[in-house]
Amino acid sequence: MDANDKKIVNSWNEWDPLKRVVVGRADNCNIQAPEPAYQPDYRKDGLPLGMYGRHPEEAEEKAKELLDNFAKILEKRGIIVDRPTPIDFSQQVQTPDWVQKNQRACMAPRDVLMTVGNEILEATMSRRARFFEYICYREILNQYFNDDPNMKWNACPKPRLTDRTYKEGFWKEWRSLSSEQKLERARKRDWALTEVEPVFDAADVGRFGKDLFIHHSTLTNNAGIEWIKRHFPDHRTHIVAFDQEYPFHIDSTFVPLRPGLVLQNYTRPPLGEELHEFFRKNGWEIVECAKPAHERGKAFSGGGNSLAMNLLVIDPKTVCVEASETAQIEQLDKLGFEVVPVPFRDVGPFGGGLHCATADVYRDGTCEDYFPKQIPGF
C-alpha cells in the first residue's frame, strides 16, 4: 500500500475541505488561578480577581453536551472527529521553577496544536496553568504517528516560565490604568511577556498556504515568532498586531473564509496599513464582521463578545457559526456560504468558540501561494 493511502495528517490553510479534526472536551474544566501571565479581573461577568476553581457542575454539563453535539454535526458530514483525554485540571502542578495552584482544560485544542502540511506542532503555551495541557493530546498524536508514516510530530522547546519571562509588577500597574491608557500601552505592544525565551500559542498563527501570519499578542512574543519563522523556513512569515487593549488569539480578529476573502473584526483594526495593503495588493477582499448578537460573553467567560466570528470553515462554501449569531449568519449567507448553525455560546467560558474548540488534522489540498505579490519588510 502506498504511503499516501495511509495519510492522516495534512492541512495547509483554514478553508480546504475538512476531513479530520480534533474537538475539545470541557470535562473537569477549571477557572485558572492567577499567575504572572494572566490575572483575570472580570467582575461584571462574575469573575473577580483571585477567583479560581471548578466551573459550576450545571455549566460544565451543558458545555459537554454542546461539544458532543458539535462533534456529531461534523461526523454527519463525513468528518472524522477525535477527542482529547482530560486530566484532573484541579490539581496543583509545579516544575523546579514555580508552583501553579490549578490548571485549565482541554476544550481548546487550537491553542495547543498547529498543523502545517504533514506536521503537527505542539505550541509552548505561555501560561503556567496550561503548561501540561499537551498531555491530553498525546494519545491521539501517538496514534497518528503510528498510523501515518509521513507524519511529522514536533514540539517547541518547553519554556521555563520563570518570573523572568514576565514583566514584574505588570498586572498591578495595568489594573490602575484607564481604558485609553491601556489602549495606548497596547499600541506599543507592551504586555506582560518579556523576550527571555520563545513562547506562543498555536491559535496566534493564521495559515494561508505558503504564508503564515503570526499575531504578536499577550500570548505570543517576538522570540516565539522568530522560533516559528526558523522552524518553517520554506514559508513566508508575517508579524501582525491589532488595535485592542489586551489582544488574545488571531482567530477572533482576522479570519480567512476562502481564497480571496477575509473576515475582519471591526472593533480591532490592524496596527499599521501593511496588512490590508498586502491582502488587497494580492486581490483579496476584506469584509468587516457583523455586529455580535450579545453585548458580553457568558458568566466566567472573561468579558468579550468576539467569539461571534470565531467560526469553523468546513470547506470554501460551508462554514459553522454559533447559532445565536443571526447577523453573522445572514452576512455569510449573502457572501454565498452554506451556514451551519451550531449552538455553542455556553461553551465560551470553557475556552472559546468553534474555531478554538477544534484543531485541523486533515484538509484536502496542497501548499499553494496565495500571495505572489510580496511587500518588502512585511
How do the SSEs run, as a string of H and E?
A: EEEHEEEHEEHEHHEEHEEEHEEEHEE
- CATH class wording: Alpha Beta
Spans where pLDDT lies below 50 across 5 or more residues: none
Query: Architecture in CATH?
Result: 5-stranded Propeller
Q: Rough shape?
A: globular
The CATH homologous superfamily is named L-arginine/glycine Amidinotransferase, Chain A
Instruction: Provide a count of the helices.
Output: 8
Brief descriptors of the model:
globular, single chain, L-arginine/glycine Amidinotransferase, Chain A, 378 residues, three-stranded mixed β-sheet, 20% helix, alpha/beta
Question: How is this structure best described in words?
Answer:
The chain has 378 residues and is an alpha/beta fold. The protein has one domain (3-363): L-arginine/glycine Amidinotransferase, Chain A (5-stranded Propeller). Helices cover 20% and strands 20% of the residues. The strands form 7 sheets. The protein has a 3-stranded mixed beta sheet. It has a 3-stranded mixed beta sheet with strand order 7-8-9. The protein has a 3-stranded mixed beta sheet with strand order 10-11-12, with helices on one face. A hairpin with a 2-residue loop joins strand 16 (312-315) and strand 17. The longest helix is centred in the first third of the chain and has 20 residues, at 57-76. The mean pLDDT is 95.
